[in-house]
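Q&A log
Question type: sequence-to-structure
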Amino acid sequence: MPRHFHEELEQVKEKTLKLGSLVETMVENAVSSLVDRDSRLADQTIESDRIVDSLEVEINEDCIRLLALQQPAAKDLRFITTAMKITTDLERTADQAVNICERAIELNEGPQLKPYIDIPIMSQLAQKMMREALDAFVQRDPELARRVIPEDNKVDALKDQIFRELLTFMMEDPRTIPRAICLILVSRHLERIADHATNVAEMVVFLVEGKNIRHAASPNG
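Response status: OK
Response body:
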C-alpha cells in the first residue's frame, strides 16, 4: 500500500483516540454534574455531544473513503471496520452521558435523596474500562482487551446493589419514588457505558487475532 494510505490509517486511529478522550470527559462531567449538583455543567456536557457526533461522522467518512478507494488487505480491512464499530460505541457512550446529565438536571431541582457513593464508583470503573479498551486498540494488545471484559461484572453488581437500596427507599416512603427512579436510570446508563467498553475490548481481539468473541459461550454456559 502507498505510504499516504498508512498515514491516513494513523489519522483514523488518532481521531478515534480524540473521540474517546472527548467521550470520557463527557462521562466524567455528567457524573460530576450529579454529585456536585451542577446543572450548568450538565448543560455544557449536553452541548458538547454535538462535537462528538461531528467527529464520529468524520471518522466514518474517512473509513468509507479508504474502503472505497484503496481496497485494503485483510489486516487493514479489519482495522478500518473495527475503527468504525468503535466510533459507534463511543458515540453511544456519549449519548448515555447526555442521559445522565438530563437525570442530573431533574434531580438537582429537588433535595438529594441519599449520598452518592456507588454511582461515582460505577462511573470510575466504566471509564477505566473504556480507557483500557482504547489503550488495547492503540497498542493492538488482545490480552489487555481480554482483561477489560470481566470488569463488566463489577459494574453490573453495583447496579444491582443500587437498585436494591433504592427499592428500600421507595417501599419505605413513596414520595421518594421519582428521585429513586432517576437514580436507577443513572445506574443503568453507567451499566450501558461499561457494555460499550466491553464491545470495544471484544473488537480489539477481533482486530488483532481475527477471532469474534462477542457471542462466545461463557464458561458456565
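Response note: The chain has one domain: 3-209.
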